[in-house]
Design brief:
Blueprint: H1 3-14, E1 18-24, E2 30-35, H2 43-61, E3 67-70, H3 75-90, E4 95-104, E5 110-114, E6 122-126, H4 134-146, E7 150-159, H5 170-178, E8 181-187, H6 188-195, E9 199-200, E10 203-204, H7 208-221
Parallel strand pairs: 3-4, 3-6, 6-7, 7-8
Antiparallel strand pairs: 1-2, 4-5, 9-10
Helix pairs in contact: 2-3
Length: about 220
C-alpha cells in the first residue's frame, strides 16, 4: 500500500471523518463504520484533503484532463481544494466546476459554479463517497446538457466496497452503466489492513470484535 494511502486513513481518523461503532445508513443498513466528509471543516484539513485527492487522481488519470467537477454540495469544496493542490503538486492548472441545486436567473446565471464547460473538455468528477450511484445518476445528465464533454472518470475518497443496486459494488455499476473509469483514494479493505490490531494514538480502532462486525457486514452487503 502506498504511503499516502496509509497517511490518508490516519487523516480520516484524526479528522473524525471515519468512525467505528454502530451506525444506521441512509439505505437503512446497520454499519459498523461510518464516513462523513462534512467533518472536514478547517483550512489545514481541506489543504491536506485536496493533496490526497490530487495524488490519487494523478495516479489513476494522469494530468490529461481540463476540468474537475464537484457535484453540489459536498463536491464544491472538494473540487476547489483539489484543483489548488493539483496546481501546486503537478504544475497543471485544472479548472474547477460545480453545479447549483437550482438554476440562478440573475447575475452569474445558469446552473454552474466556477468554470463553464466547453465541447471537448475532458472532465474528472470528484465526490466524497458513492454508495448507490444516485449522485452520478443526477450529475451525468447535467454535464452532458452543458456541453459535449468527455468524462474521463470518477474519484471518491473511500470505496466502501459494498453492493449498490445490484450484486456489484457502486463503483463497478457506474463503470458499467456510464462507461467511465472509477477510482478511490483508499478502499475499505485497505483501511482494515492498515488499522486491524494496530495501535493508533494509543488505541486499537479495529480489534478482533470490530473486525468480526466488519466481516459480518460484508458477508451480507459486500461486493468488491
Amino acid at each position: 500500500m502506498e504511503q499516502y494511502k496509509k497517511e490518508f486513513i490516519e487523516f480520516m481518523v484524526d479528522s473524525n471523518v471515519l468512525r467505528f461503532g454502530e451506525f444506521t445508513l441512509k439505505s437503512g443498513r446497520k454499519s459498523p463504520f461510518f464516513m462523513n466528509a462534512g467533518a472536514y471543516v478547517t483550512g489545514s484539513q481541506l489543504r491536506k484533503l485536496g493533496a490526497y485527492y490530487a495524488q490519487a487522481i494523478h495516479d489513476n488519470y494522469g494530468t490529461d484532463f481540463d476540468v474537475l467537477f464537484g457535484p453540489a454540495y459536498k463536491g464544491i469544496p472538494l473540487s476547489v481544494a483539489t484543483t489548488m493542490a493539483f496546481s501546486e503538486l503537478y504544475g497543471r492548472d485544472i479548472r474547477y466546476c460545480s453545479n447549483r441545486k437550482e438554476v440562478k436567473d440573475h447575475g452569474d446565471v445558469g446552473i454552474l459554479l466556477g468554470s463553464d464547460l466547453n465541447d471537448g473538455d475532458r472532465v474528472v468528477i470528484i465526490e466524497d463517497v458513492t454508495t448507490s450511484g444516485k449522485s452520478i445518476e443526477e450529475t451525468f445528465p447535467i454535464l452532458k446538457e452543458q456541453a459535449n464533454v468527455d468524462v474521463v472518470g470518477l474519484m471518491v475518497s473511500l470505496n466502501r466496497q459494498e453492493r449498490g443496486r445490484t450484486q456489484k459494488n457502486a463503483l463497478a455499476e457506474i463503470r458499467e452503466v456510464y462507461g467511465i473509469e472509477t477510482g478511490a483514494i483508499v478502499t475499505m479493505e485497505e483501511v482494515v489492513e492498515h488499522l486491524y490490531n494496530r495501535k493508533y494514538n494509543g488505541r486499537v480502532l479495529i480489534d478482533d470484535a470490530m473486525k468480526e462486525a466488519i466481516d459480518t457486514y460484508y458477508a451480507q452487503y459486500g461486493a468488491k
